[in-house]
Amino acid sequence: xxxxxVMKGLLLILATAHAFVGHNHARRSLNPEKVLTRNKEVKxxxxxxxxxxxxxxxxxxxxxxxxxxxxxxxxDSITEKDNQAKDEAIVEPVTxxxxxxxxxxxxxxxxxxGSRSPYGNPTVLEAAQxxxxxxxxxxxQLVNGQIVVLSSSxxxxxxxxxxxxxxxxxxxxxxxxxxxxxxxxxxxxKRRQRQQxxxxxLNFCQFALECGELSSNELSSICGPFDTATASxxxxxxxxxxxxxxxxxxxxxxxxxxxxxxxxTYALTLFFNRFSGxxxxxxxxxxxxxxxxxxxxxxxxxxxxxxxxxxxxxKCVQDEQCxxxxxxxxxxxxxxxxxxxxxxxxxxxxxxxxxxxCILQKNNIFNCDAKIPQYPKVKPMTQxxxxxxxxxxxxxxxxxxxxDEDSLFDDSNCERMPTSWKVAAGANVAYDQFPSQxxxxxxxxxxxxxxxxxxxxFLWYDPVFRVETIDGRNVxxxxxYRVREGPTIGTFYFSVLDNGVVSNEYWTxxxxxxxxxxxxxxxxxxxxxxxxRYLGGLLCTAxxxxxxxxxxxxxxxxxxxxxxxxxxxxxxSKLRSVGIEPWELFCVDNRVDSPAALDAGEAPLDHFRKDxxxxxxxxxxxQ
Length: 623
Known about the structure:
The protein is an alpha+beta fold. It has 15 helices and 21 strands. It has an 8-stranded antiparallel barrel with strand order 12-13-14-16-17-18-19-20, surrounded by 4 helices. A 6-stranded mixed beta sheet has the order 5-4-6-7-8-9, sandwiched between helices. It has a 3-stranded antiparallel beta sheet with strand order 1-2-3. Helix 3 (124-138) crosses helix 7 and helix 6 (241-256) packs antiparallel against helix 7 (261-275). GO terms for molecular function: violaxanthin de-epoxidase activity. Keywords: Signal.
């Protein structure tokens, strides 16, 4: 990367080369004792899905049978029904499970999640129930989430105790009474002993969060082979599994402390990816030089980077701004989407884009292949203003309030504005927190009216948002997405080149008010070349405020928590229908008169659109 990061990589490679010679990991072998394979066909609509079923038999208490179902589709053209048939036919193997241990009053006490949402803090039980669902989505259903609520009058049942003792991961949350913490201490002690005694103890972790003062060592964390309660000399040797567990323990705790569902769930997927023996697609890739990769892979990646992109590397490290960005990224774990994306947008430049494009996108030096997440399954709205939604109207809803010839202007009295929508609140911790988020949707110049219902049309989407850089500046960032219509009306494929890396996204139009006072999007995306996947959702209004979903008597409220009302309840219900809890939302600061907004200056809203408008006028004059 920069001279600093290149040197860092070289030192890491040299340091690990000697250490790895003759080193054997103490990991339990994951080779099956017996393998049975058979093929079967599942019919779905006009498509045949061939299922290859492989059953692997293991010894040991953790896994007795592991079944994999791999699908091969016989046709490229798959209808929505066919997709559904395929989804129902494929059953993923279970890699592990996580149990959330909650206090007896979990439905009454507030958690630390949702501190920046218009909903407020959910109860501990509400938060755990959503994390239970989300760990399945982040792991592609490879990890099961379960909940045990302690009783104030009795100990857990035998089944619950067995579940807690056998679980790969146990997360104790908000235990406060002496009886609850004593039980947790006893449980953690038994699990600690089992982790030490059993050969599959690598696949164990336990954390106690917000559980009093943690006066006892028994509630200290375990992460794989690393136990914070027992100092091991191996943790000082960075190439060992114990040291790897220590690094992961520190990282998971840092993510937990953010108290967002994205970070919390991601921390758990990191554990299963590292120590379960099964890669988790959400986090299996890294573009950093790490001890976990080993010296050979680190050296290969470094050589490939210098050999294929040497000119870009030299130009970037010789430029002060580009080098400063690389140095800042070197200090981060780049799989931390929150920190890495804020760093990148703080130092955007053509040199940085060329550097990233060559290394990541063009040559894919780190062999990343992230795909758009398939969970949760989200359905688009089907009705608008009492009639079935059409492709044309779906596009017009996206265009929204923009002063454009393709806008949905009629008797709805929509105000013509320079933007389609403004984001009032978003659900992704990395990408939806930026202030002053403007959305501009408009038809491409090449669109033909005769194709409006065939799925051949496409739009442009230009998000223009303000960034408060890590060095204190306020700047505008802009992107230019190509938007194609998806397989179902109300769904869309988005693609963009963002700082040299292509991101592909699948957006769903979840709900829109008849008067276009608000709109709800869900999106799932992936930046394949850096191995990152993400989910999110947006609640948008014309002016970026939440007033349009409030009753008349509530508009203009200065309360951080939205007052309840029929429209608010409806919006929350729609968000929940696509897997977004209202406490996951981050309110966006869209004030135009704030010191930061004034410092940034006028937003470049027409930066890309002006050329498309000119092309449209040119085509009209030639007709």
